[in-house]
Amino acid sequence: MVILILPAYNEEAALPPLLDAIEAVRNAHIPDLRVIVVDDGSTDSTVEIIQGESKQRAWVRLIPHDRNRGLSQAIQTGFRAALSDAAPGDVIVTLDADNTQPPDTIPAMLARIEAGEDVVVASRFRPGAKVYGVPFMRRLYSRAMSILFQAAFPVHGIRDYSCGFRAYRAAVLKRAYDVYGEGFITEQGFACMVEILFQLSHLDGVTFGEVPFILRYDLKPTATKMRVLRNIADTLRLALKHRLGRR
User: Which range marks the domain in which residue 199 is found?
Assistant: First the structure.
């Protein structure tokens, strides 16, 4: 089984076409795919749309937050819900809900999991990857973080540390919660995605890989929710903590 987590905040325009794309992949390649939409206190019609979608598509489930708690809490809610249903050999995928990351990349990610890797990241920095419509500051942030982390804080097999489009072997996530408990994910912002990689890299035997994908930021219907300078500061602080912890 594949469980796809969509952390969503005010994505009323993006979710219908995204779910159509997910359904196409499900019908063609992954008939046992399920979707968990974690609504993080949206103030638009996101909840109503997903409630309607879940009636037509029984494989879609909504978990709402009573208020906006941030990406970290949405990811954790999704992980907990997915792990409560997943067998050790199942795969848990995280995907942005803004329709910028194509679900048709998922079969290639699952192939790498089936080949033996435990965590597979959809990467902007592998041959064949393309990026459309990303603002300059975000492109600069992503590239700078990739270069810095590969040089100073490497996770073998990873070039794209901040992309949230990932596939995880369920057994590895369960092991992380068994080892770290509530300390598995402590960052409150977008830096939590980097933290997850660092934490998993501390576990013996966990292997990482990447596949290229096409990021369609030009299809994003809403403004970015990331505060770039804040995220840079959070990520650098996290990287330093990771390095000191390793020592």
Answer: 2-246
